[in-house]
């Protein structure tokens, strides 16, 4: 007998992972900033009590790197890291076909040319596609740890060493993750974090560059503040001055980010428990194929993804799962132009710069010839069209997890 009443009738009410955690600690730390009347991180009185500095200290320690620089956004972190590493006009930077458009934009803002390569069934950069895309102009690669899943860093680092490329990890979606015991963001030459509301940890807005490299750190610092080299202790460090932006983080943002970041380990282990329980309950199913995870222990675990054999089956599965009361989505067939998928990055596809005279593809120093088209990464599009994603949450109870398991099993049994 077919049971048509949904597995779950209870509403699914889980807010963003980050802001759901807002509580007394955020309020206290923000009030502390207001009480101190000190919102500029470099304000000379009370410099040693800077919240931004505390946030950098926390990340330095947690990631285990020599330097961390807080900035005002994840995009800024990527731009500063690229410029910091000396990437610029004439250079190509390899990025995966599945990442937020900001990764591509940061490369272009640094006046370099993004080269887009396939992801594999982990939905992170396919190392073979990366190696095949290397040209004499390639200077850097940006592996992106999408949806909390670590990229295949052993392979990516090995290829990069052989070709002497700079590796900048985009950790915007994977704060708290690791790969073979190493915190994400500590493996490449630089790691870039975002503290925007939809990430695991928010600061309102914000970002962080983590690096072991003194020169990258010095150049990031100079770039993140147009007068950085000219004042205070920085003079002693003999930083080489060059034009920069204002990417500084405000103390108010840092206070929020600090309160949030102090709980990151607990948050990640709650998410891992949730995901492990669900995966245990569905991994025997032959009708679905679970996303491959390069290091399951390092998965931040807020996203459950599995594939159906065909696009049609995936659409049907997704609709049935929704009917069972479990919110989910196919990644590429959601009825809108998701800017996480390369074919929807229109200004990249059309090679449009900020103006006709400010266009990294047409600049005199660029000798390469990269081409883009909507069908250039068929494997990525195929995987994303067959993928079903369910957003997980730290507040999911065992009962909530079991609803997900029961619903997936019920729908699978009808395949
Ligand atoms: C969010 C995001 C960014 C940009 O971070 P912002 O803080 O919004 O500038 C970069 N890369 C990826 C993969 C992201 O998800």
Ligand kinds: pyridoxal-5'-phosphate
Number of domains: 2
Number of strands: 13
CATH class of the largest domain: Alpha Beta
Q: C-alpha Rg, in Å?
A: 22 Å
Q: What overall geometry do the principal axes of the alpha carbons give? A: globular
Q: Give the neighbour order of strands across the main sheet.
A: 1-9-8-5-4-2-3
CATH overall fold name of the largest domain:
Aspartate Aminotransferase, domain 2
Structural class label = alpha/beta
Structure description:
This protein has 415 residues and is of the alpha/beta class. It has two domains: 243 residues, 3-Layer(aba) Sandwich (Aspartate Aminotransferase, domain 2); 108 residues, Aspartate Aminotransferase, domain 1. The chain has a seven-stranded mixed beta sheet, sandwiched between helices. Strands 10-11-13-12 form a four-stranded antiparallel beta sheet. β4, α6 and β5 form a beta-alpha-beta unit. It is globular, with a radius of gyration of 22 Å. The protein starts with 23 loop residues before the first helix and ends with a helix. The model has no long low-confidence stretch (mean pLDDT 96). Bound molecules: pyridoxal-5'-phosphate. Pyridoxal-5'-phosphate binds next to α3 and α4.
């Amino acid at each position: 007998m077919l049971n048509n009443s949904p597995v779950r009738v209870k509403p699914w009410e889980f807010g963003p992972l980050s802001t759901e955690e807002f509580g007394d600690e955020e309020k206290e730390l923000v009030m502390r900033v207001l009480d101190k009347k000190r919102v500029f991180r470099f304000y000379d009185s009370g410099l040693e009590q800077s919240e931004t500095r505390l946030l950098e200290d926390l990340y330095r320690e947690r990631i285990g790197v020599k330097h961390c620089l807080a900035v005002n956004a994840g995009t800024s972190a990527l731009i500063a890291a690229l410029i910091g590493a000396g990437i610029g006009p004439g250079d190509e930077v390899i990025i995966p076909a599945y990442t937020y458009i900001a990764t591509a934009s940061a490369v272009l803002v640094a006046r370099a040319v993004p080269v887009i390569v396939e992801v594999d069934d982990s939905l992170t950069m396919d190392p073979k596609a990366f190696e095949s895309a290397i040209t004499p102009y390639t200077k850097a690669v940006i592996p992106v740890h999408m949806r909390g899943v670590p990229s295949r860093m052993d392979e990516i680092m090995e290829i990069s060493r052989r070709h002497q490329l700079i590796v900048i990890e985009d950790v915007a979606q994977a704060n708290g993750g690791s790969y073979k015991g190493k915190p994400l963001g500590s493996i490449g030459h630089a790691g870039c974090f975002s503290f925007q509301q939809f990430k695991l940890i928010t600061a309102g807005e914000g970002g962080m560059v983590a690096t072991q490299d003194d020169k990258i750190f010095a150049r990031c610092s100079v770039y993140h503040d147009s007068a950085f080299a000219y004042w205070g202790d920085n003079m002693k460090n003999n930083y080489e001055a060059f034009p920069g932006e204002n990417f500084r983080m405000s103390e108010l943002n840092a206070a929020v980010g600090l309160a949030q970041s102090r709980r990151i380990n607990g948050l990640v282990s709650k998410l891992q428990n949730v995901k492990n329980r669900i995966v245990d309950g569905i991994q025997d199913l032959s009708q679905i194929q679970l996303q491959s995870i390069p290091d399951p222990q390092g998965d931040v675990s807020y996203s459950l993804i599995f594939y159906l054999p065909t696009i049609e089956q995936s659409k049907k599965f997704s609709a049935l799962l929704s009917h069972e009361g479990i919110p989910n989505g196919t990644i590429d067939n959601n009825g809108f132009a998701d800017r996480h998928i390369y074919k929807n990055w229109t200004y990249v596809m059309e090679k449009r710069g900020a103006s006709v005279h400010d266009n990294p593809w047409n600049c005199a120093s660029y000798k390469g010839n990269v081409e883009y088209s909507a069908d250039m990464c068929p494997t990525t599009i195929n995987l994303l069209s067959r993928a079903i994603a369910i957003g997980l949450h730290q507040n999911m109870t065992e009962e909530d997890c079991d609803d997900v398991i029961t619903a997936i099993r019920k729908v699978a049994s009808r395949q």
